[in-house]
Write a structure and sequence with these properties.
The chain has helices spanning about 15-25, 60-75, 80-90, 100-110, 155-165, 200-210, 220-225, 245-250, 285-315, 325-335, 340-360, 365-385, 390-400, 410-425, 430-445; strands at about 35-40, 50-55, 95, 115, 125, 170-180, 185-190, 240, 255-260, 265-270, 445, 450. The protein has about 500 residues and is an alpha+beta fold. The strands form three sheets. A five-stranded antiparallel β-sheet has the order 1-2-4-5-3, sandwiched between helices. Strands 6-7-9-10-8 form a five-stranded antiparallel β-sheet, sandwiched between helices. α5 (about 155-165) packs across α8, α11 runs antiparallel to α12 (about 365-385) and α14 (about 410-425) runs antiparallel to α15. The longest helix has 30 residues, at about 285-315.
Length: about 500
């Protein structure tokens, strides 16, 4: 599991055991979790070893039974080299001689145990990792009604094993790298050889090699640095905590990036079509899924447009409204001191504040506060004539419809205010002009060389089996692999 080794201040170790002990103790001076254990063989006094590990990051039972006891019980002849210690004395399945101090230090800091023997300057690295991890459970923000309930954890190798269990093919490739000059975080590029385009893998490697931050504590550190169109509110790189989603995207020709210490996995290329897909679309009846997907698409468009259209109609195009509807809106607005634009903007801001407060408040209290707070504030504002009832309905519709596409939350908020400004200046003409600008922006986006509107526009449509609706499995020729290399199978 080693990527690029971290830099070490140790040029080389000595054949003298006591000197090596002093070197490592000086390097980790002030670290109370650093443990040094000296052990000798009872039957062969010439065998003297020093065992180093970090308390809390190792399995103590494995060290006692598979490292210390075999050394103490060894009765072989002299001398004992590092190879003998690694392959004959140690009883751990992953035990190796590591002459490079930088690679040894990288493994040591990640939970491995290091053993030095007197007379040999080469350390032995033994895999005894045992730090605690939380159990695998369904991600709270990606719950499904049907389908697997398993989610990634902070364990790096555990996450890779979840992907491997779903794609039992030798074509599944794992490539490790180490990023962050201080954290030295291990990341893994996952892809299916023969399905993913080699150019996509090379682009991933090139962008990761240009990463310059000194720390990687979460996948978002990398997402903001390697994604296309970094200033766009529309996501051009996928984020998930579900191994079944990662496996499906690998089958579609994407590349997944697993980051040590976080359950979040990045996937790319990522296109707009995926923003309208739900995790359980492929575990439920295709009739319902097709209708639900169309509702999500329509809901997103209505969510960003309806406040702008409302302001444009009441400000510039009142003659378009039916007479009875116009009289009803006028009666509802009677006595309201603020203009239509101002009350719409204020209510949209209040909605965003309530949503953020509900998200930050723990547990069910947050959901209750969002619902009750919205009802109480809306009713109080209408009763006090601060705002009119129609604008509360419009803002509520925009907010609820925006929840249909949680992957586009940021894009929906930015687009909503942008179209609102266009409608307030130029009326319906401004709304149409703003929508054209949004569409032009989407048309210019790409993700790792793949057009962002793939499958959604007639001229960019290699596959339509899994675009607006989901084709039944018995008719889907390539299982929705809209970015995979044609004619290839893993």
């Amino acid at each position: 599991m080693q990527g690029q080794p971290l830099k070490s201040d140790i040029a080389a170790f000595s054949a003298d055991l006591d000197e090596n002990v002093r070197t490592l103790q000086a390097l980790f001076e002030g670290d109370n979790t650093f443990v040094t254990r000296l052990v000798e063989s009872r039957a062969a006094p010439h065998l003297r070893c020093a065992v180093f590990f970090f308390d809390g990051m190792v399995k103590n039972l494995a060290i006692n039974q598979s490292v210390l006891r075999p050394i103490a019980d060894w009765d072989g002849g002299a001398p004992v080299s590092a190879e003998v210690l690694a392959h004959r004395i140690s009883q751990v399945n992953d035990s190796r001689v590591e002459p490079d101090p930088a690679k040894m230090l990288s493994s040591f800091l990640y939970g491995d145990t290091v053993i030095f023997t007197d007379g040999d300057p080469r350390p032995v690295v033994v895999n005894t990792k045992g730090f605690s991890l939380r159990s695998s459970g369904e991600p709270d923000n990606e719950r499904v009604l049907q389908g697997p309930r398993e989610g990634f954890t902070e364990g790096f190798m555990t996450n890779l094993s979840m992907i491997r269990r779903r794609l039992r093919t030798p074509h599944l490739k794992f490539t490790f790298q180490t990023l962050g000059s201080r954290t030295h975080t291990t990341v893994c590029l996952c892809y299916l050889d023969g399905v993913c385009k080699p150019s996509v893998v090379k682009e991933w490697e090139a962008r990761l090699s240009s990463f310059t931050l000194d720390s990687v504590l979460d996948a978002n550190y990398l997402s903001e640095c390697v994604r296309d169109s970094r200033m766009s509110p529309f996501p051009t790189i996928g984020v998930t905590e579900r191994p079944d989603v990662v496996a499906a995207r690998l089958l579609e020709g994407q590349v997944a990036l697993v980051v040590d210490g976080t359950p979040v996995v990045l996937t790319a290329p990522y296109i707009l079509q995926e923003c309208f897909q739900a995790n359980d679309d492929y575990y439920r009846n295709f009739f319902y899924v097709g209708l639900a997907r169309l509702l999500r698409m329509a809901g997103f468009v209505i969510s960003i447009c309806i406040p702008a259209i409302y302001v444009a109609l009441l400000t510039f195009h009142q003659e378009i409204l039916p007479t009875r509807l116009l009289f009803a809106v006028a009666a509802a607005r009677q006595g309201v001191p603020m203009p239509t634009l101002l009350e719409t903007v204020l209510l949209l801001l209040v909605f965003e504040i309530l949503k953020e407060a509900g998200t930050r408040t723990p547990g069910a209290i947050g959901q209750t506060m969002s619902i009750v707070g919205g009802l109480v504030l809306g009713q109080a504002a209408v009763s006090a004539r601060f705002v009119s009832a129609p604008v509360v309905i419009v803002v509520a519709m925009a907010g609820v419809l925006g929840l249909l596409t949680p992957k586009l939350t940021t894009a929906a908020m930015v687009s909503r205010f942008f179209l609102l400004a266009c409608g307030a200046v130029l009326g319906l003409y401004g709304v149409f002009f703003g929508m054209a600008l949004v569409l032009a922006h989407l048309s210019g986006l790409s993700s790792f060389g793949v057009p962002y509107l793939l499958n959604l526009l007639p001229r960019v449509s290699p596959h339509l089996e899994d675009a607006y609706v989901r084709t039944p499995w018995f008719k889907m020729r390539e299982s929705g692999r809209f970015m995979a290399r044609k004619g290839e199978r893993p």
